[in-house]
Amino acid sequence: MPRTTRSSKAVATASADSKDAKTKTKSTSSNSSIYTLAPELDSPPTIFILPKSATPESRIVTLQNPRYGKPTRYLVCPSTGFYEFTKMASPEKSPRSWLIDGTTNPHIPAQTTKDSELYVATPIDPLFLVLPALAAKITDKKRMFLSSDDHFDAVSEQDSGSGRRKNHLLEVLKWPQARKLLESRMASVCDTVEAGDEIMFRLNETKLVEELLMKAKRMSEDGLPKSMEEKFVTKALEAPIVGIRSTVALTRSSTTVTVESQEGEEMTETTTTKTSLSEATTAVATPTNEVVASLIPTPEILNLQRLRVSLNFLTSSYLPPSLSSHLKSSLSNPSDFSRKRIAGDEEDAFERAEKRRKKEEEEKVKKAGVSRGVKELAKVNTRGMMKLTSFFQKKT
User: Fold this and answer.
1) 263 three-state secondary structure
2) Both 186 and 69 in a single domain?
3) pLDDT of residue 322
4) Does residue 192 share a domain with residue 312?
């Protein structure tokens, strides 16, 4: 019996150990994954959406940002022109990710990126990329004519000391079509002179303002995007509320009168509502409020506001800060001078009209006191006739 007891305890212990071993094995297998994920890359790939018109010779290059002066990525196509990249991302409240399939490109393995950012290539006027060099000495009264190469060298040298990214403008200029496009856009805002075989350029502020206004008109003629329209046009021109006009609508219900005849027959008659206000018992007052605005903008004012928003967007996004502030000050000064000049012209015109009126009144008064005979004598031609006073001279 003791052996049996001892052996039974050993068996029980062995079975318990086996159960624990199985449990540990199951837990270990449940925690382990069938698939092994690749380590996260230090520089994950970036997703770009390129235009269909871009040729295979297109390249993503680094150029100077015209507004901030920092190296920025651009797409340059030798046939279709220059493109900037607009970043599109999901809001932080609803994060997204991209699943990249490696079947399209064998050099890129299948992977998942944490961020759902993508960059869309949109056309940009290459004039803005050269404006920092054209407007480098805009405050100088005497500006010199410079060749296109001098302006291009000034743009490329401004970023040479950053040490982060190389400016690829000189490489882009090796494409003849790209150079021709840049020079044609420079000529649209510059005064040009020919010096031998070269064309010299000098920035013209008037031409630049006209070019910016033309771009702003094209942006605003079909309306702005919905978000910009609501924020910068509708709300900006929203007039204050003068008051709330209350009206009361009276609703009357018809009454039913029951009349019993002498024979016991029941007759029902429905009477219509009377229009008299004395029947207050059958009237129900329903107040309604109507918001009364002080001013409603006209379509002309809305178009002017859209034009203003478009122009501010261009100057604050694509022009250097020094050039933007200079153009705004130069635009405001002539307008003030024109207002003063118009006011002065109006005052001078009023004074001239007042003098003319007084002179005409004096002439009317003089003519009113002259007799008819004197008027007739005034019409007689007295040329060659001696004056009457000559007959009454003293004898010598």
Assistant:
1) coil
2) yes
3) 87
4) no
In a domain, 138, yes or no: yes
Q: What is the pLDDT of residue 156?
A: 80
Residue 171 within a domain = yes
pLDDT digits (tens, 9 = 90+) for 8-27: 444 455 455 555 555 545 54
Handedness of CA 109, 110, 114, 119 (dihedral sign): positive
At 257, which helix (H) or strand (E)? strand 255-260
Sheet harboring 47-49: ordered strands across? 47-49, 118-123, 81-88, 71-77, 59-64
Contact 79, 90 (CB under 8 A): no
Q: Is the pLDDT of residue 195 over 50?
A: yes
The residue ranking higher by pLDDT, 190 or 113, is: 190
Percent of the chain topping pLDDT 70:
62
Instruction: Tell me the DSSP string of 80-98.
Output: TEEEEEEEE---TTS---E
Show the CA angle centred on residue 223, arms to residues 221 and 228, nearest 5°: 135
Distance of alpha carbon 303 from the chain centroid? 12
Q: Is residue 111 part of a domain?
A: yes
CB 318 within 8 A of CB 254: no
Instruction: Return the higher-pLDDT residue of 158 and 24.
Output: 158
Structure tokens that stand for 17 in this block? 């150990």
Q: Would you say the pTM of this structure is higher than 0.85? A: no
Which neighbouring-strand residues pair with 288? 247
Q: What is the pLDDT of residue 72?
A: 92
3-state secondary structure of 66: coil
> Do residue 151 and residue 54 come from a single domain?
yes
Q: Are 67 and 317 in contact (CB under 8 A)?
A: yes
**Among residues 338, 307, 320, 308, which one has the least CA distance to residue 130?**
320
Cite the beta strand spans of the chain per DSSP E: 47-49, 59-64, 71-77, 81-88, 98-100, 111-113, 118-123, 146-147, 190-195, 198-203, 241-252, 255-260, 266-271, 283-293
Tell me which residue range forms the domain holding 216. Answer: 210-237+301-318
Residue 309 has, within 13 A of its CA and on its CB side, a CA count of: 23
User: Within this chain, do residues 144 and 220 fall inside the same structural domain, yes or no?
Assistant: no
Cα of 93 vs its chain's centroid, Å: 27
Residues 52 and 71 in one domain: yes
Residues 102 and 232 in one domain: no
Nearest to 120 by CA among 88, 142, 74, 147: 88
Nearest to 112, CA basis, from 32, 49, 50, 45 = 45
Give the whole-angstrom CA distance, residue 132 versus residue 243. 51
Output the domain CATH number for residue 154. Answer: 2.20.25.530
Token reading at 40: 């996260």
